[in-house]
Amino acid sequence: MTAASAFDSAGPAGDDHAAGLRRDQWRERMGLASLAAPALLLVTITMLVPVGWLFGLSFLDDNGALSLEHYRRMLAEPSYGRTFRTTFEISFVTTLICILLGYPLAYFLSQLPRRAANLCMIAVLLPFWTSLLVRTYAWLVLLQRSGLINTWGMKLGLWSEPLQLVHNMGGTLIGMVHIMLPFMVLPLYGTMRAIDRNLLRAAASLGSTPVHGFWTVFFPLSLPGLAAGASLVFVLCLGFYVTPAMLGGGKVTMVSNRIANDIELFFNWGAASALGVVLLVITLVVLVLAARLSRGAGLFGAGH
Amino acid sequence: MPRQPITPTKTALALVMGLGLSSAAPAWAQELTVVSFGGSYQEGQSKALFQPAAKALGIKIKEETYTSIADLRLKVKAGAVTWDVVASGSGSAARAGAEGILEKLDYKVIDTSNFLPGTKQDYCVGGDVFSTVLAWNTKTYGQNGPQSWADFWDVKKFPGKRSYRKSVAGALEPALMADGVPADKVYEVLSQPGGIERAIKKIRELKPHIAVWWSSGAQHAQLMKDGEVDMITGWNGRFDVAAKDGAKVAYTFNQGLLDYDCFAIAKGAPNKDLAMKFLAEISKPQYQAEFTKYITYGPTNKKAYEGGAIDAAYAKTLPSHPDNAGKQLTIDLDWYIKFEAQASSAYQNMLTE
């Protein structure tokens, strides 16, 4: 009886303790949540609501009745499929070129003393502070038929006829890579800086050549940065509008250009909304697949 | 009892009491919001039409700019119409009117008895006449460049880079004329089954020689200024402005496509009746004659050509001058209302091939 009463008295006290802990934990969570609340609210208002609204619009026809006509049109007209293919091709190639240019650059920067690296970083970031429109126009001035490059090239006798450098896929890629490169270099540089140099020294002391050490130690450790940069560049490329419109000479139609075209052409926004929805879905599928495929390789930070 | 002079306090009091005011006090004049396309075009409109007409009517004008009729659609659908008068292309206005986002115009108020035929519609009254013409680089071809659409398509006689419009408006007609269809049969052919395809097939032929597909007036003027292409289609006024800036460009009205810009009233405009009076005012010949001084777009009111308001030699350079109008084909808006969506799909398919 006494023992039981002792238990009885201990019981509620223990519960009190656990409840207190739970309460504290809950408070802490709520505190953290309230810190995130403004951002969450902003994302909800500026992202989820309009996207949901567009999603709804894409299933309505001219009279506001439920209809799949906008999706049917996309399947029936070959130009839509080609537009999506162009969009993904350009985004993929831009990402690839950014990796080829950005990785060595980030590696070089990460090996510099911090001070020198910071100085060089300013050079990388400088384009960020110039308007995208101005940079795109600048490329037009450089690359066009009577532009600087063609004028100088012909004066120096390097070529005799003006080269077609812009108003095509090539010009678009040049402009996009230039704008996207910092998005690749920044996450790569951050990851590379954080890699412990001692690991490479350890590899060397165990008899590894520098090249072998790079590929077996440094490169795998830099992959999360590469994956972050690549997905950032790829996704940003998918929504490009101004650069392909200005440097593509009308031959490079990306989804965003087509959306603008459809808003002009059709009375309702369903046609354009449907394009946006399809682009969003394909992008999500591509990203999920990429995450799945790279999980084994430890990309996206999943392996750490 | 002699009338007392109106003092500011009194008028303010009157206003507060809701008695209203005549045009005696400009500070409280009614305000009309006018929206147009900006740039040198709207600057000319402002100086020649909006400001003088506002003065004549004793009202104030607030000017805004917009990019396309889609902006107006957004305002009307959201029930937040702040614009009264909307400047528009004839084709967009026709579609916007059919869609129900413009007010019907009252031609008992607006006098169009002296207008050129086909330069007004139920929802939009013509303001100026422009032309889609064939222009060329005078550095490449000299002053006597290509004179017809057949020449535009003739890459042997006139080798060089071309530029053509990226959207379907005004793109199919030249192709059919180049294919041998007489101007007065163009829309007949385009309305028949296979007509659109015939035009597109002809453009597909020229596609390897088209270096740039232009999408705006500013762009086609810039292309000629930069000497980026040798031959181009585009709006005549823009080329004149570019030539004034030193561009090596000339154009012909031969086989050009005559079209017009117009003024409409937004559905649910805050000052609909005043806007109607304003449109009546700016449709008068003296305003239209003045506008031609800023850009080589012609008047829709034939009377503007009379009385020497426009210099005789200069008048001959305007698209709606009888000498020039006769060489051209007038855009058929009914065709666009019926076929534009279908033609645009086919055009986009050809472009992305």
TrEMBL record, chain A:
Question: What is the protein named?
Answer: Spermidine/putrescine transport system permease protein/spermidine/putrescine transport system permease protein
Source organism per UniProt: Bosea robiniae
Q: Which family does it belong to?
A: Belongs to the binding-protein-dependent transport system permease family. CysTW subfamily.
Q: Where in the cell is it found?
A: Cell membrane
Which stretches make up the ABC transmembrane type-1 domain? 84-290
TM helices/strands, residue ranges: 32-55, 90-109, 116-138, 165-186, 198-219, 225-244, 265-291
Swiss-Prot/TrEMBL keywords: Cell membrane, Membrane, Transmembrane, Transmembrane helix, Transport
Q: Which Gene3D superfamilies match?
A: MetI-like (1.10.3720.10)
In what way does this protein cross or attach to the membrane?
Answer: Multi-pass membrane protein
TrEMBL record, chain B:
Q: Which Pfam families match?
A: SBP_bac_8 (PF13416)
Q: Which residues form the signal peptide?
A: 1-29
Keywords for the protein's UniProt record, in alphabetical order: Periplasm, Signal
From which domain of life does this come? Answer: Bacteria
Question: What InterPro entries does the annotation carry?
Answer: SBP
| This protein's record includes keyword Signal | yes
What Gene3D superfamilies does the record point to? Periplasmic binding protein-like II
Q: What is this protein called?
A: Spermidine/putrescine transport system substrate-binding protein
Species whose genome carries this gene: Bosea robiniae
